[in-house]
Specification:
162 residues, mainly alpha, flat, disordered C terminus
């Protein structure tokens, strides 16, 4: 589902459907009809729910992978840095103009090119992470954060399974 959201983001769906955009918070202060505001709020809550669920499920494995220096986890970390950099550079000439700064069109083109390269690097890092990910079974020796009660429960469960 996260990959679908990324694809929709790249297609600029977040700026579509309504004015000022279905995922733009400015819609709540605009003169848009109440039903558009309700649909936008529902879409925002759905995206937030998907992202939070993903984080709750994936974050422990991600931190574990970073600590073990796995390629897939570091690929995601680098990809996230690229995504943040791309978002910062997205629309740099427009953002600079809002601050009263004028960017030479050449530099504006350079920022656009760098932003697109960073977005592509993000996508490539996700593909790399998916391709190199292997499930790991954590033993209690590899997970020092477990308590003695967790260890006792694990032993008891494994004894009943045999």
């Amino acid at each position: 589902m996260i990959l679908v959201l990324f694809c929709l983001r790249e297609l600029d769906i977040h700026n579509s459907f309504f004015e000022p955009g279905i995922l733009q918070t400015a819609i709540f202060s605009s003169v848009a009809p109440m039903w558009q505001k309700a649909v936008s709020a529902g879409a925002m809550l759905a995206v937030l729910g998907v992202v939070l669920r993903f984080l709750l499920l994936a974050l422990p494995s991600f931190w574990y992978g970073l600590n073990r220096r796995t390629g897939w986890a570091w690929s995601i970390a680098v990809g996230l840095l690229m995504a943040v950099g791309g978002v910062i550079l997205d629309g740099a000439p427009r953002k600079a103009a809002a601050l009263g700064l004028y960017l030479n069109p050449f530099y504006g083109s350079v920022f656009v090119a760098i932003e697109e390269i960073l977005e592509m690097g993000f996508a490539v890092s996700l593909v790399f992470a998916i391709g190199t990910w292997r499930p790991e079974i954590r033993s209690t020796a590899q997970n020092p954060s477990r308590t003695k009660d967790d260890l006792f429960t694990t032993v008891q469960i494994s004894d009943h399974v045999r």
